[in-house]
Amino acid sequence: MAKSRRTAPDMTGRRKTKTKKLALMGERRLGRVLITGASTGIGAELAREFANHGHALVLVARSKDRLDALAAELHAGHDTDSIVLPADLSNAEELVSVVETLEQRGIEIDILVNNAGLIDVGPFADAPPERLQQLIAVNIAAATALTSLFLPGMRARRFGRILNVASLAGFQPVPTMAVYAASKAYVLSFTESLAEELRGTGVSVTALCPGMTETGMVQSIRNATPAVAWAPSFLIADARSVARQGYTALMTGQTVIVPGWPNQIAATWSQMTPRWITRTVTGFAARQASWLRRDA
Ligand SMILES: NC(=O)c1ccc[n+]([C@@H]2O[C@H](COP(=O)([O-])OP(=O)(O)OC[C@H]3O[C@@H](n4cnc5c(N)ncnc54)[C@H](OP(=O)(O)O)[C@@H]3O)[C@@H](O)[C@H]2O)c1
User: How far is ligand 1, taken at its centre, from the CA of residue 175, in Å?
Assistant: First the structure.
């Protein structure tokens, strides 16, 4: 397994090369970025990061008020040109209408960030089926549909970048997060396949695989699994730092980025360990967490 391509080099001498590469790419073209799930969390931080580098944006999520507030903040801070397109991406018609609106306005998307996502924590048998359908619709179907709708234009222009937000959970099965982990395994595999298919076309695809990151999502995991509240702070990343690492990996054409050394160790361990061992370990951890939940 190509370990060095999967994990991010962090505090190494390659930093200078990266900065130089980024500068070169910035000179060549900035491009308009569409970010899904931009209303909060990692998506909002990615929007701030792109704005900071001078990109024009299209912000998509359901919460129009939050998107409007972010667009105003970015305009005031960076003079960013942001288009706000509220949409529920679990609804195929609303998703297509985002793309049609951009086409009607003659706006091309050079960088697509498939970040919108939701999680479900707890025994699969107890999960409301409609919640699972929604999770699959947003985490898998919407990311796939948006990629297939924007990719032909990028390929024709011989320029494009796609950032898919996967997760550390995508590297192994995670009992009590079965559908979420499977959805992120899909995103990771999808990204790696596309990255190879598109080699030499001018379009690159990157999977950002964060571990636990301080956002509304991690708060919902804490609520469902109080044991997570005991996780040491070094295991919980800051959304801004995750966004920065995702941006750098995207703009330097890395295929997979796992932010943070504890997560890089976990991802490497999962890839090098026989599958039956990883699922036994994650199963044991999930049973301990549910035992603690019953006691809480
Ligand atoms: N936080 C973590 O620990 C962690 C770890 C690994 C990976 N991730 C991944 O990072 C990504 C961002 O998550 P986050 O942690 O920033 O969570 P978050 O704060 O809950 O943000 C999720 C975003 O997705 C949007 N969204 C959810 N359902 C949507 C729908 N039906 N249509 C359109 N937008 C929708 C939300 O906006 P609205 O509610 O306004 O629609 C929000 O902007 C997700 O893909 C997640 O799986 C997170």
Answer: 20
